[in-house]
Amino acid sequence: MTASTPALLLTDDPDLVAHVQRLAAAAGAELSVAADPTGARIGWVTAPVVLVGPDLLPALADTRPLRRDQVHVVVLGASSDSCFRAALDIGAESVVELPHGEPWLVETLADTADGASVRANVVGVVGGCGGAGATMFATALATAAAQDVDPASGVHPAMLVDADPLGPGIERVAGLEDVEGTRWDALLQSAGRLGSRSLRKALPAREGLSVLGWGPGRRAALAPGVVREVLSAGARGSGLVVVDLPRYPDPAAAEILQRCDHVVVVTTLELAGVASAARVVAEVLPDAGPTWLVARGPATALDPAEVSSLLGVPLAAAMTDQRRLAESVELGLGPLSSRRGPLARAAREVLEVLRTPAGAEVAA
């Protein structure tokens, strides 16, 4: 799919067609209309967003379409219980009632016009033990990803999400603590779907890196539904989404792990740290997707390859401690003020593992 691929509207209702076409024009998005579900199979696969009118729901369900993301039923006026049941039959994510849902639909169509049909990988980073430096590594990974994206590509480089209420605060580590923008407290009070462009514009950002953190106030528990919307919006049109995860299981962390394409475990190379990492892998990540290990410690510590074998997690990178790293963070320069340090090298090694098919061979 590309940014020029039109959204697909499946309906034979001229009033619904006119209404959605007006919204698509307001969003600056292309829209393809089809009145025959059978003849729209290619569009069903390739369109960044599929909108389905209630008049064609039964016929579409009879074709048993492939399940895919970004399918929504659009209704003029109030929807019925039978409409909701039929929407579930085709795997639709939502039923949008117009005109009430017009702002949401315009934002969704604007996402497609903005190239948000491209979905970023979501990478969770979790500390195998206390003091492993998972927050620091998550920030370095997202920063390195942002530095590697061509500004002319039209893709938002990277988004960094702090999902650890007990962590040090990822905005501070990234050097964006004093930059104005939306924090978790505002999003947790919202309801409904988020647009990718509006989310990116709202977050504190610098040099292609957007950060969603907690701010200075009290940190409330994350709601899984809001987390789901944040990750979905962040992944649309971005190069990479990196999430700093807590080391303990909770509903929000479970929701995030279900949506992670990769998980990175950061551990020290001390015996106590490795023992803790083993528990995290067994108790927090038993159902996670492809999982990788980043090992940090001096040359005199345990062997990274042996730790990888012990944990049953492929080694993506090993690094030594970096001098003056804390000073760089305190000055607001972020963790990658030096692109040649151990942290920068490890972050880019992990990016290569995540980006290339060779990573699958390592996992095997």
Please describe the topology of this protein:
Blueprint: E1 7-10, H1 14-27, E2 31-34, H2 41-46, E3 50-52, H3 57-62, E4 71-76, H4 81-89, E5 94-98, H5 102-113, E6 121-127, H6 134-148, E7 156-162, H7 170-174, H8 184-188, H9 196-202, E8 205-206, E9 209-212, H10 224-235, E10 238-245, H11 251-259, E11 262-268, H12 271-283, E12 291-296, H13 304-311, E13 315-319, H14 325-330, H15 342-355, H16 358-363
Helix pairs in contact: 1-5, 6-15, 9-10, 10-11
- What is the mean predicted local confidence, pLDDT? 88
The shape is elongated
Helix content: 40-55%
The neighbouring-strand order within the major sheet is 8-9-7-10-6-11-12-13
Largest sheet: 8 strands, mixed
Q: Which structural class best describes the helix and strand composition?
A: alpha/beta
In percent terms, what proportion of residues is strand?
Answer: 15-25%
Number of strands: 13
Helix run count = 16
CA radius of gyration is 22 Å
Helix and strand sequence: EHEHEHEHEHEHEHHHEEHEHEHEHEHHH
What is the distance, rounded to the nearest whole angstrom, between the alpha carbons of the first and last residues?
Answer: 29 Å
Which residue ranges are poorly predicted, with pLDDT under 50 across at least 5 consecutive positions?
358-364
